[in-house]
Write a structure and sequence with these properties.
Elements (H helix, E strand, L loop, with lengths): L1 E6 L9 H8 L5 H9 L3 E3 L2 E2 L11 E6 L16 E4 L3 E6 L16 H8 L23 E7 L2 H12 L4 E9 L5 E10 L7 E2 L6 E13 L1 H4 L4 E8 L6 H8 L12 H5 L7 H9 L4 E9 L6 E5 L4 H9 L4 H11 L16 E2 L8 E3 L17
């Protein structure tokens, strides 16, 4: 148990208690501060208080922060599906329904448990609870995830993500008919009321940039509701829930997304409407981390992996009357992946796993692959 005490200054008088605590204990989010207040771990002048209390100048606020509960990380064989692997890193196809790492109070197997079984000496790389983890996907999002096998690879990959030198393209199915292509460039932060959600409708926050293009459409006449669209989404920044929140705020929530309004829309449809049946078949937010491309932090070669479409998404496409093979072929053409000059055999020591819709590849390093601009306006 760690105890911290703060005296309310005159300029801080009138602030809510939860806001005051979160602003002084920087390691605590406001949600965590509210939780501690509800549990009686926060006292004002030695007395329990509510999160909504307006603090007074001169009051002494004491916060007791319980020690984190130990989490036993036991290696488990989760039958991970590698897309690319060498001695430095692993890119795997994460299934929906499994968390990347243990969370506060979480229980059950996570991807980390499976990684400890798959990679014998991973423990301790980057931290005991998140060994090797470079980035994360939501529990119910499937697709490409890269894991570092060494501290050097971890440091290099983290730098690449921070510099936005990693290409992340997703496949999403949304309600409605957005424009053929576009960009959402907004401020982004936690929703002011619903704290589990994030929003682009905030007055202050970090920048979030999402680009998309339509790969296929299902009309309202054929599937019900406002129809549906399949998008390839280029994520230029990596905010929590960014794709889900951006498209929800734009009026196009993802199918089967309970947190951001997709299931609410589906609930208004007839029980046998194809759109509703497609969402039911998918059973989780219709989001798949399709393509992950980056420069290898050790060898310098270009690594590009594509995760196969999960069966539940294929089932959803079928109910929407969308041909999955034609859809991947269109994405293939749009990205120029058919250019044989851009393809190269995997380099020495590298292993690319077959079976993807668009074959994974390792390319020689290039100083400027595309000339595409980053979200900050500079060229790659």
């Amino acid at each position: 148990m760690k105890a911290r005490s703060f005296t309310v200054e005159a300029a801080e008088a009138g602030a809510r208690l939860d806001q005051f605590v979160a602003s002084h204990a920087s390691e605590l989010s406001r949600a965590r501060a509210q939780q501690l207040i509800d549990e009686g771990q926060v006292k004002v002048d030695s007395l329990p208080a509510k999160a909504s209390l307006r603090v007074r100048a001169g009051s002494l606020v004491t916060v007791e922060i319980p020690a984190p509960r130990a989490v036993a990380l036991v290696a488990q064989d989760l039958k991970l599906r590698p897309l690319y692997e060498d001695k430095h890193l692993l890119v795997l196809d994460k299934p929906a329904g499994i968390s990347v790492h243990p969370g506060a109070g979480g229980a059950g197997a996570t991807l980390v448990h499976g990684l400890l079984h798959h990679i014998a000496d991973l423990r301790g790389i980057g931290g005991e609870l998140r060994p090797g983890i470079v980035h994360r996907l939501d529990k119910d999002t499937s697709g490409c995830l890269v894991v570092a096998k060494s501290e050097a690879a971890l440091t290099g990959l983290q730098a690449a993500f921070k510099a936005r030198d990693v290409e992340k393209r997703y496949l999403a199915i949304v309600h409605g008919q957005p424009a053929e292509s576009g960009e959402l460039d907004t401020l982004y932060g936690r929703h002011p009321v619903e704290r589990k959600r994030f929003s682009s409708r905030v007055e202050s926050g970090k920048r979030a940039v999402t680009r998309w293009r339509v790969l296929a459409r299902a009309t309202s006449e054929s599937v019900g509701g406002a129809g549906a669209s399949v998008l390839e989404v280029d994520l230029l920044t990596g905010r929590t829930h960014q794709i889900r929140a951006h498209f929800s705020d734009a009026g196009h929530p993802l199918l089967a997304d309970a947190l951001y309004g997709g299931t609410k829309r589906e609930g208004r449809l007839g029980l046998t409407a194809p759109l509703r049946e497609a969402a039911r078949a998918i059973g989780r937010q219709a989001l798949h981390a399709w393509v992950l491309e980056f420069q290898h932090p050790i060898t310098g070669v270009r690594v590009a992996c594509v995760a196969p479409l999960p069966e539940e998404l294929r089932a959803g496409f079928a109910m929407l009357g969308i041909d999955a093979a034609a859809l991947t072929a269109r994405a293939h053409t749009l990205r120029g992946e058919g250019d044989d000059e851009r393809r190269a055999a995997p380099g020495a020591g590298a292993r690319a796993i077959a079976g993807t819709d668009i074959a994974p590849r390792v390319e020689k390093k290039s100083s400027d692959r595309s000339g595409r601009r980053r979200s900050d306006g500079t060229r790659r």
